[in-house]
């Protein structure tokens, strides 16, 4: 009977010790979470500012094409020529718009990729496990926006 009692006590002590050590090992992982204000990074980016200026210039060129088309169509009196001019300028403006949209989206994706790579690089340097957008986090996380914005051009 004494042997069984000692065996139960030893098993109980081993179980409690093992559970305590395991609990400590799991709870002390050193898991670090950072947050980044992506909108702030985008608004401060000189690349985005340059892209917006370039986009506005191209939009102004499209407006000039529309104005030129209106003037030419207003001068014309023959209905057949009016239809030809309308079709010509409609195609030209649509082609300009498609090219403008494609160029803008391509450059925006490159800028986005650049910003993401900078965020990943900074997070690794600062030993963070996860980086989340600030607008998606209600509470917690270290804000590393200032450190990342120093590197973003």
Query: Averaging pLDDT over every residue, what do you get?
Result: 84
CATH level-3 fold name of the largest domain: Protein Binding, DinI Protein, Chain A
Order of helices and strands: HEHHHEEH
The SS-based structural class is mainly alpha
Query: CATH superfamily assignment of the largest domain?
Result: Skp domain
The separation of the N and C termini measures 77 Å
How many strand units? Answer: 3
Q: Total number of helical segments? A: 5
As for the number of domains, it is 2
Description:
- This protein folds into two domains: 1-29; 31-151, Protein Binding, DinI Protein, Chain A.
- The mean pLDDT is 84.
- Helix content is 76%, strand content 7%.
- Strands 2-1-3 form a three-stranded parallel sheet.
- It is mainly α and 153 residues long.
- It has helices at 2-27, 38-44, 46-75, 79-125, 145-151, and strands spanning 33-36, 130-133, 142-143.
- The relative contact order is 0.17.
List the helices and strands and how they pair.
Elements: H1 2-27, E1 33-36, H2 38-44, H3 46-75, H4 79-125, E2 130-133, E3 142-143, H5 145-151
Parallel strand pairs: 1-2, 1-3
Q: Key terms for this structure?
A:
single chain; 153 residues; mainly alpha; Protein Binding, DinI Protein, Chain A; 2 domains; three-stranded parallel sheet; 5 helices
